[in-house]
Amino acid sequence: MRVIIAVLLMLSGYAHASCGQISNSDQRNYCYAKESGGSCGQINDSNLRNACNAEKGGSGCGQISDSDMRNYCYAKQSGSGCGQINNSDMRNACYAETNNGSCGQISDSDQRNLCYAKKGNGSCGQISNSDLRNQCEAMKR
Predict the structure, then answer these.
(1) How far apart are CA 88 and CA 94, in angstroms?
(2) DSSP letters spanning 28-65
(3) Nearest-angstrom CA–CA distance, 38 and 119
(4) Of 35, 53, 96, 130, which has the fewest CB atoms closer than 10 Å, so is most exposed?
């Protein structure tokens, strides 16, 4: 689930104050990198670090070793290709975010609620995972 959370939060903006409330250090550092325009180098997880770098234009999606994360990155950049993602929740979130699908197809309730919140149709308060909820709140500010 951690990988899905990280990927779903790619390409989102965050409020600086909320980044500090994220307990997972990689997700917190990703948030800071996105919010401040700083380096992705503080992120220990290589897939998340490479996704951060790709998002910021420092490298391509091809540097991401996890195939689902790599395909998600490509889909976010091109607007197509979600069908290449094996994880069903990640694939359905990708379809929803590229306007080809519905959040209702996501089976994980936290991911589904994040999807609804990102689309403006839901509340971050419905998310049980505190890190994901904090990231969602930061994104909506």
Answers:
(1) 10
(2) HHHHHHHHH---STT--SHHHHHHHHHHTTSS-GGG--
(3) 27
(4) 130
Tokens (6 digits) for 3: 């990988």
Task: Please state, in angstroms and rounded to a whole number, the distance separating the CA atoms of residues 96 and 33.
Answer: 25
Q: What's the distance, Cα to Cα, between the start and end of the chain in Å?
A: 24
Under a CB-based contact definition with an 8 Å cutoff, are residues 8 and 129 in contact? no
Domain count, the chain: 1
Query: What's the domain range around 26?
Result: 2-140
- CB-CB contact of 4 with 108 (8 Å): yes
Sign, CA torsion 99/100/103/106: negative
pTM assigned to the model? 0.78
Q: Measured between alpha carbons, how far is 6 from 4 in angstroms, rounded to an integer?
A: 5
Confidence of residue 115 (pLDDT cuts 50, 70, 90): very high
Calculate helix-pair angle for 25-36, 46-55, nearest 10 degrees.
10
Yes or no: say if 75 and 82 are a contact pair by the CB < 8 Å rule.
yes
Average pLDDT, rounded, for the chain: 83
Percentage of the chain lying above the pLDDT 70 cut: 86
